[in-house]
Amino acid sequence: MSAIFNFQSLLVVILLFICTCTYIKSTYPSILEVRDKHSFSGLPRKAAIIGERLSPWVSASCLAMGLYLLFIKD
């Protein structure tokens, strides 16, 4: 099943996207520099900002999702 139609998979994809963009911005900041910040190409930049500002919440949700996937999910 596609990750778009399954809510749990969609959450995993979104969390991984935020974490990846935050890591890329901290390692190679020139990659996420775009001129048009309000278009679709500015989405990784926005995800990196969310990851930086909400890092304790993003980390906790990644940990919770990982534990759920390892131990609770069928």
Automatic annotation (TrEMBL):
Residues 1-26 form the signal peptide. Its main location: Golgi. It is found in: Golgi apparatus membrane. GO terms for cellular component: Golgi membrane. One of its GO terms (biological process) is protein secretion. Keywords: Golgi apparatus, Membrane, Signal, Transmembrane, Transmembrane helix. The chain crosses the membrane at residues 53-72. It is a single-pass type I membrane protein. It holds the Pfam family DUF1242. Belongs to the KISH family. Involved in the early part of the secretory pathway. This is Protein kish.
